[in-house]
Amino acid sequence: MEERIARTIRNITTLGDLAQFEANASKRNALTDEVKAAIRARSTDLGRALISESTGLDLADLSPAEEKIVEAVSEYVGVMKRKGKGAPRTLMQLRNRGLIDAAETAVAHATPTQGFQTLADEDLGDLSYEQIVLDHPEEFSPRAIWYSRRTLGQPNESPRPPAKTTTPTQKRTETLLQWLRDEAEKNGGQLPSFTNAEAAAVLGMYDMHQYGRVHGNIQSRIDFACYLAGLPPLGLAAAVPFDEAWRQEDRTWAFPMNLMQAAAKSHSWNAVDFDRIASETEGLPGQAHISWKNELAAREAKVKAWAFGLENSPPSVSASDDEKQKPSRRNPPWSRDELILALDLYLSFRSSPPSTDSPEVAELSGFLGRMGRARGLSEAETYRNANGVYMKMANFRRFDPNYTGEGKVGLRRGNKAEEVVWNEFIDDRAGLSIAVAAIRSEIEQAVGSSASEDCYWVFVCNPKKWAIDQFLNRGVEHDSWGVRPSDRDRFAPGQLGIVRVGVDRRSAEERDGNEPLEPGIYALVEVESEAFEGTGAKDEFWAPGAAREPGWPTVRLRYLRTYLRHPLTVDTLRKERPEVSPLLLNGFQAASFPISVEDFHAVLELLGEELEELPFPVEQSKVTSDQLEMMEKKYLQASPEVKERLSRTIERGPIGALVKKENGFRCQLCDALGRHPIGFLKASGEPYVEAHHVMPVSKKEVGSLAASNVMTLCANHHRQMHYGGIVVVINSATFDFMLDGIAVKIPRIGVAVTTAEVPTPEEPLLSCVGK
Description:
- The protein is of the alpha+beta class.
- 44% of the residues lie in helices and 9% in strands.
- The strands form 3 sheets. Strands 1, 2, 3, 4, 5, 6, 7 and 8 form an 8-stranded mixed beta sheet that branches. A 4-stranded antiparallel beta sheet has the order 13-12-11-14.
């Protein structure tokens, strides 16, 4: 092979370009064995880089099995790219499960996977997950080995696969936790000094050179669970921690190792501690660094507070469900109504209960606190705190056959009342929903409802159950949506939301031969009603047996924008806005959940939408000029954090509509540049123009809701203001900026406000950058 060709291949930077190079070489009959080998080697390198970028996995210092998995996926991604396709589901599995667990899950199917067949067709069967499992049986479960042997045509001792159990990573995690629990119990709650080699030997890993990274990953998962539970990291109870543990990386602060070690070694560990840690590990991905990386990206301050706060943590914790205080102040036993609410939350997330710091647990904890005060049970801030709610959900697991059937047990501590409530409602979910609604209604009437709060919502869709692509293709504007029972009283007309589609697990036949939908945002919607009891979902888009039963809380929705052809994918959202809620990024097993205004605006910006440009009912825009002064007075000095629903409505339409009319529907920039300022005419005969908030509402600056913060622009100039990196200086009477090298001054609209003094500083008020 000529050096020129080899150099060209080495310099190719994307799999798409490499696929095009291969196609060109094939057309010219230049695809020799040497060229093929060079293309394959470059494809593997680029595939590895793509895996790292797409999944966030740390691909350094891998175990032999993990290294082989990366090589296999790199080859598979390259093959799919050469076929003009991608491998989003494979990469998503790696991101969510880690390397070993992704392979473990993929092989345990009744029929061979697409990846297996693709690699076999390319004569790369030695890189299939199945072959990797058999080459490294010590890292996989007997069930994965059984399926791999069958797929590869090798005999099994049993005609049936072993029962499904926890993944090998979780099994090892639980084994190590049990050993640490036993060691603590034998020493009165104190962990005796042990080495990492001794701990690894408990897992059958006697060669730390070979298995040090695998054991370190297990220990790091446990340490992350300790963080979630608010406990010292168990890994630092070892005599000497791993060299690579607790690295500072690019942060401005370092973990206080001495402090953390002292807390772990002095802590009095008990059964409840270990139960909580074990329960937290069940929801974690196989590779610990995924959890740590995501948490540090989203909540670095919280991680830092935990690490430095261990110095002041007590040497022991309570063994009760709630945080134990002085005997005279101990919280009363859980009442029947409280247990009903806790059971409802548990069953809403039966397969994967939310963590202690989840919004669901926090919401129920807060509600139970209000309930306790309303009924005169307790005024304590710790009454039914998040830890107590989480532990109560774990208590219910001991009755759940879906959980105990896998050989697990829930928290053993509890009382007879939990079993009574479980037996009463486990087969009567409609009755449970009615009971929950009655309890919440009573308390909210006593303490005041929060339904007036202006919420933003995520409506979750599983295309396997409801074919949203077929629905969106119909162009339907109004529909209904079943919502989470715990949120039923928070919905109100006028609220906004997004529709998030999860993983598309439909067969090709169920998709009518179309490509599977990518996880992402597919619609912007407006809530048109409060929640009501649905009559049962019966439309044609539901899969057989998947429709919701009658009585489920439901709201009416209006579709404002749909994005079936160009959705905002979760991959893009994760790359561009990694700080948004993990529930939005990773998915959530619920029909609906609230998100913050910041997260909603982040999604809106990536969709290229402006709130004031969304279609809204005509009656909303019927605001007379006389009302503009009232609105200006109310919102000139108001922050967008004001929770009145009117603030959201004004942000969307009336202020913008009035400014458009005041400016004669002219693009103020075109006008200033001497161009024709009137755009095309809409069907109504009104010229089309867009309203632009110079200081973005999402920044929550005082005055950003006011008419004086709005200019009217044509569509092109509006987008240029957002994405052109234009710096605007907001003066008392004008917006000043440079546009394409030209200095521009745009007059700010003036509204006389006679009942309040408005500051008029001489100096520029504010500078902002459109993006």
